[in-house]
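User: My collaborator sent over this chain with a note saying "see what the structure looks like." That's all I know about it. Can you take a look?
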Amino acid sequence: MLKNSIHNVHLDLNAKRVTIPALALVQSQVTGASVILDAGFGTGAAQLLELGTSAHGAIRLEDITDDVNYLWMPDDFDNRFPLHIRYLWTSDYGTANGTATFTTLYKAFKAGDAIAIADTALTLTHGASTKVAATARALYWSKYGTIAPIATGANANQTFRNDTIAVAFNTVC
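Assistant: Without extra context I'll predict from the sequence alone. Here is the result:
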């Protein structure tokens, strides 16, 4: 043990933030009068768009049928703790009213599983996030959604099975 160091066996949470930029979800380009980047391999018409003239992109989920899908490979995830998910969001409207309610589904895969669309609800859903500033394109964080560790069975006290190699997510707003 090192001299002058603090060791506590109760401080074993390996907190890690994974950021998935909107551009990582672009799956095709539609050409025409302007270039439109379709996002997410989902249904509906989710698109990557510039926020005003900011030179920053975001995915527009304009209709409840617009969804975005993402396949995550958890290479450094501490399986003993919950997985928390939230979204950075904005609105083009310059009024202080309005909410965003994200719905996230997930599905874990092990080697040999057939890939499929996420279909399992989070343990704790996001809930509505309210816009508070009368400013167009002001940034907000959604409320957290959570996948909690499984309570019973062979995988008790683990968020995913030990043999999980990928997790699919599907998001609508």
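A starting point for your reply to your collaborator: The two ends are 50 Å apart (CA to CA).
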